[in-house]
């Protein structure tokens, strides 16, 4: 196992190198120029050129790439073209809201979706199953932003129970922290819940038809023991896989959720940086996202071994 | 067990008794700002098992030492200024404001419970203005960029020598007294007393001269002024002189300009930075100080009241008069989603919204506690259709003039604004409602007829070549205006090549002088602020300085001559006459085609704030007070 993990970590390096190359040149070939945005509405061509020269954007692309890679190898993601602040600081500022939102969504989704998926499989083709599947279809069909506005209208504007927007760091109190995450994690989690509920149901249905489940029932085990200890554990591998894939979906989903709920997270940082052509931030963020994704895949692969003793690396 | 509670009320002087159920535990409840709360009534808090204090200020200073001495810790200070802590709910009670003595878990839980029960109204509230602006503060140098939001940032933390009032007349701001020689070639300025930078150092003429030089090297209005200046010399720390080679008449107006790139007075250290590079520190001498450590680019910028600021005694008007800081803290919050901003304003999570979308105005008009404010007769936005004079077909004046017949301003304004209360048909180039509004050249705008426009273009030699329009897809006014224009062009039978892209790409591509087939363009749509457009010198889009001008590069020496003459004019009558001649000439040359003027009213919580100063060309936030 240790050798496998070390091998996987080393395999990350070429992946990151390709990502770095791809991101750098893709951004440079995309239309748009940060110098023109900085110089502003009333700037002349000469003024834009002057800004571009000072930012080093007039140098050959290969030279710019080499400079960036050199700094990257020294652990320096560069400095934002606009705010002049280090990209690492900007990412660090935004990490907590996104991590909190992602984890809260994950928690809410898994806590709700796995039980209802199990119930749907247990009561297959009965009313409970139909309700769960109806919910799943709705969860897939309703866009995140629509649900977000509906939640805001009822829970914040009309009933004044929760805030419309904003994020309160956990350091400012656990209550405000939770309060600011309830609506965003519900809005973001609905699609995810639907996905996990469906997979749980399908996976459980397959397991529940196995001979050993029939044996367990025949020897008089309680239903909850059969479902949770015998069936769910064996149905867990596909569920964990979907949860893992879902985290990648969540990362892309936070862009919309963070915008609607005005949460200063990594998703907003990415969109703003792309719109402003703040190259160092976009480059840094995509590297961080890629690394997170690769690391997550590794965690999922390792978890298989714990869930299914037949899997060994 | 003996338990003592205190409510620290540093600002509001509010006071909260304990609930009846806890009266048995109560020995003393009073108000104070420090340990005297207890010691004044003969109690030594250091000898008590639990001390509970609720406050937003001064807690650390007063109670930190005894907590430390007793081996206790105070959790991270609660911030009343967190972005959504205005509403009261049980979850928002700052239970972390608890000082505990000893390690007993029971005591900890009890104290936590107590703090939950105490009402939030007892908390001392720092006066915070939460304002959602049109953009986020991403750049801290108001000279390096012409972005309006950088100007708003700069106007909070920097002061200027002069300030133009609501009628665009200049008044001294940092200057105490000034003298102008009879031939208008020599100026002498003396700084008023008590001017200090946020780091405590005095403002001197060295700082002023370096700041003006940097501004003059970068800003269009500053460049024009510096073109006439032969020398700026410090007489002493408080007095400096400015010598001109010609009697330029816009010196004071230029020094008091609002809008983008204000002539902000910085420390010499920052002012010596290359104007093409951004400064690293935001230390000014204005009414608010920038809290750089609390700045989250793309989300929030925080400004703290400058307690040492000495405002002028005159009443505020535009950028002139006393800048009296009205709140302790200003948070400029960036909300990219206008729907969220609207809900947050209605819900009371923000106090001020600079530019609500026109679609939301009817809802905001009905919202309880919310008011809309039209910002003033010239503080509006003007729509502009810019043609590329360098490449065919609009290098032909007849083609450009035919374009006037494609523009019915009502069509554009209905698409952008909708409600006639907020827009105005304005056929001229100088802002309608401004001091230099006139009808010179406006006859071009009186014959809307797309078919006739197509006919005129054929007569001018147009043979169906594609006309490339840069169509922004993500702008709330420019996008619909471009769509109206494209439709009119199609009705005229023109071959329209629509290049859809985000606004960031438009601002890049419009700088290209190449023909459209090689990445250039023929038409783009943009807007201009009404305050700048009211004055021929400040209105850079009316210029026709060829290669040195703005995108589209109109080239007419007569237009530039008239702009210079306006700057030299000694009387208001003379200025008005020149303004009319200039507009006539500029419209004949089609420097741009105006498509109307509209207001963007600002929305605010009238039940919470007051003192908004309208009509400035730049949001003035320093005078806003919390009720």
The greatest inter-chain interface is formed by:
A-B, 63 and 68 residues
What proportion of the residues of chain B form beta strands (DSSP E)? Answer: 15-25%
Ends of chain B: how far apart?
41 Å
In which range does the helix fraction of chain A lie?
Answer: over 70%
Mean pLDDT across residues of chain B: 83
Largest sheet features of chain B: 7 strands, mixed
The Cα radius of gyration of chain A reads 24 Å
Q: In percent, how helical is the residue content of chain B?
A: 25-40%
Largest sheet of chain A: none
The main sheet of chain B orders its strands as: 12-13-14-5-15-23-16
Rg of chain B, Å, rounded: 29 Å
**Unreliable sequence segments of chain A:** none
Number of helices of chain B: 18
Secondary-structure content class of chain B: alpha+beta
Query: What is the β-strand count of chain B?
Result: 25
Order of helices and strands of chain A: HHHHHHHHHHHHH
Distance between the termini of chain A: 6 Å
Shape label of chain B: globular
> What is the global morphology of chain A?
globular
- Total number of helical segments of chain A? 13
Class inferred from helices and paired strands of chain A = mainly alpha
Overall description:
The complex is a heterodimer of chains A (313) and B (627). With 313 residues, chain A is mostly helical. In chain A, 78% of the residues lie in helices and 0% in strands. Chain A has helices at residues 2-29, 34-39, 45-55, 61-73, 87-122, 127-141, 144-158, 174-208, 211-218, 223-234, 236-260, 266-276, 279-307. In chain A, helix 7 (144-158) crosses helix 11 and helix 8 packs across helix 10 (223-234). The longest helix of chain A is centred in the middle third of the chain and has 36 residues, at 87-122. In chain B, helix 5 (205-218) crosses helix 6, helix 12 (409-416) packs antiparallel against helix 14 (478-491) and helix 17 (557-568) runs antiparallel to helix 18 (572-589). In chain B, a hairpin with a 5-residue loop joins strand 6 (162-164) and strand 7 (170-172). Chain B is globular and about 100 Å long. By secondary structure, chain B is of the alpha+beta class. The model of chain B is unreliable at 1-33, 70-105 and 114-124 (pLDDT under 50). Chain B has a seven-stranded mixed sheet.
């Amino acid at each position: 196992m240790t050798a496998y993990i070390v091998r996987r970590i080393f395999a990350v390096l070429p992946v990151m190198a390709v990502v770095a190359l791809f991101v750098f040149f893709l951004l440079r070939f995309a239309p748009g120029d940060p110098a023109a945005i900085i110089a502003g509405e009333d700037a002349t061509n000469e003024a834009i050129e002057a800004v571009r020269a000072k930012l080093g954007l007039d140098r050959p692309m290969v030279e710019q790439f080499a400079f960036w890679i050199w700094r990257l190898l020294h652990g320096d993601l560069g400095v934002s073209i606009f705010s002049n602040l280090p990209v690492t600081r900007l990412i660090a500022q935004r990490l907590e809201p996104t991590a909190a939102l992602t984890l809260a969504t994950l928690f809410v989704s898994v806590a709700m979706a796995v039980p209802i998926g199990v119930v749907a499989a247990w009561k297959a083709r009965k009313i409970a199953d139909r309700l769960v599947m109806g919910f799943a279809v709705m969860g897939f069909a309703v866009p995140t932003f629509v649900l977000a506005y509906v939640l805001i209208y009822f829970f914040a504007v009309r009933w004044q129970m929760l805030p419309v927007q904003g994020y309160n760091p956990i350091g400012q109190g656990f209550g405000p922290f939770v309060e600011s995450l309830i609506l965003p994690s519900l809005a973001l989690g609905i699609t995810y819940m639907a996905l996990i509920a469906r997979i749980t149901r399908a996976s459980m249905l397959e397991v529940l038809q196995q001979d050993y489940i029939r044996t367990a029932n025949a020897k008089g085990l309680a239903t909850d023991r059969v479902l949770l200890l015998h069936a769910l554990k064996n149905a867990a591998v596909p569920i964990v896989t979907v949860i893992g894939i879902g985290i990648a979906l969540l990362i892309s989903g936070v862009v919309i959720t963070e915008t609607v709920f005005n949460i200063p997270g990594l998703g907003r940082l990415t969109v703003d940086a792309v719109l402003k052509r703040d190259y160092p931030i976009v480059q840094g963020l995509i590297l961080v996202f890629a690394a997170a994704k690769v690391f997550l895949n590794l965690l999922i692969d390792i978890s298989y071994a714990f869930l299914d003793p037949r899997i060994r690396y | 067990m003996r338990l003592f509670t205190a409510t620290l009320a540093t600002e509001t002087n509010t006071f909260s008794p304990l609930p009846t159920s806890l009266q048995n535990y109560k020995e003393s409840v009073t108000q104070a700002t420090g340990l005297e709360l207890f010691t004044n009534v003969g109690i030594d808090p250091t000898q008590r098992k639990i001390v509970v204090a609720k406050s937003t200020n001064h807690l650390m200073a007063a109670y930190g030492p005894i907590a430390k001495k007793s081996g206790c810790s105070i959790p991270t200070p609660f911030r009343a200024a967190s972005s959504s802590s205005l509403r009261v709910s049980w979850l928002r009670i700052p239970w972390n404001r608890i000082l505990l003595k000893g390690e007993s878990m029971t005591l900890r839980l009890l104290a936590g419970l107590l703090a939950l029960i105490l009402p939030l109204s007892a908390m001392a509230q720092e006066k915070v203005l939460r304002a959602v602006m049109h953009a986020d503060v991403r750049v801290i140098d108001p000279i390096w960029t012409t972005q309006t939001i950088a100007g708003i940032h700069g106007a909070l933390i920097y002061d200027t020598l002069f300030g133009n009032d609501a009628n665009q007349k200049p008044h001294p701001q940092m200057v105490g007294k000034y003298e102008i020689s009879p031939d208008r070639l020599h100026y002498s300025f003396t700084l008023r007393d008590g001017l200090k930078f946020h780091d405590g150092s005095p403002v001197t003429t060295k700082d002023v001269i370096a700041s003006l030089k940097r501004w003059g090297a970068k800003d269009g209005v500053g460049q024009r002024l510096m073109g006439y200046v032969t020398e700026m010399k410090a007489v002493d720390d408080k007095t400096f002189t400015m010598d001109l080679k010609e009697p330029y008449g816009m010196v004071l107006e230029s020094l008091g300009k609002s809008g983008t790139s204000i002539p902000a007075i910085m420390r010499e250290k920052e002012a010596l930075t290359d104007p093409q590079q951004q400064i690293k520190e935001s230390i000014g001498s204005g009414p608010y100080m920038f809290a750089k450590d609390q700045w989250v680019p793309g989300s929030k910028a925080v400004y703290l009241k400058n307690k040492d600021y000495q405002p002028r005694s005159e009443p505020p008007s535009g950028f002139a008069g006393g800048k009296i800081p009205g709140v302790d803290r200003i948070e400029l919050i960036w909300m990219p989603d206008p729907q969220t901003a609207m809900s947050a304003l209605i819900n009371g999570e923000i106090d001020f919204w600079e530019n609500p979308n026109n679609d939301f105005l009817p809802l905001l008009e009905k919202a309880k506690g919310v008011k809309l404010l039209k910002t003033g007769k010239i503080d509006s936005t003007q729509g502009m259709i810019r043609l590329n004079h360098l490449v065919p077909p609009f290098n032909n004046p007849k083609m450009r003039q035919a374009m006037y017949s494609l523009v019915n301003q009502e069509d554009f304004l209905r698409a952008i604004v909708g409600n006639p209360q907020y827009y105005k048909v304005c056929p001229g180039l100088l802002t309608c409602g401004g001091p230099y509004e006139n009808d010179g050249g406006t006859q071009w705008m009186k014959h809307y007829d797309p078919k006739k426009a197509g006919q005129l273009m054929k007569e001018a030699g147009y043979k169906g070549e594609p006309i490339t329009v840069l169509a922004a897809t993500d702008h709330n006014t420019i996008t619909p205006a471009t769509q109206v224009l494209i439709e009119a062009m199609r009705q005229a039978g023109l071959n329209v090549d629509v290049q859809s892209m985000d606004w960031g790409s438009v601002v890049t591509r419009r700088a290209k002088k190449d023909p459209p087939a090689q990445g250039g363009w023929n038409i783009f749509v943009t807007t201009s602020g009404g305050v700048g457009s009211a004055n021929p010198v400040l209105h850079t889009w009316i210029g026709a300085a060829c290669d040195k001008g703005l995108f589209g590069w109109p080239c007419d020496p007569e237009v530039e001559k008239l702009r210079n003459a306006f700057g030299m004019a000694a009387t208001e009558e003379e200025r008005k006459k020149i303004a009319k001649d200039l507009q006539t000439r500029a419209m004949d040359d089609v420097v741009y085609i105006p498509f109307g003027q509209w207001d963007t009213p600002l929305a605010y919580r009238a039940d919470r704030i007051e003192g908004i100063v309208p009509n400035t060309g730049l949001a003035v936030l320093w005078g806003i007070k919390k009720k």
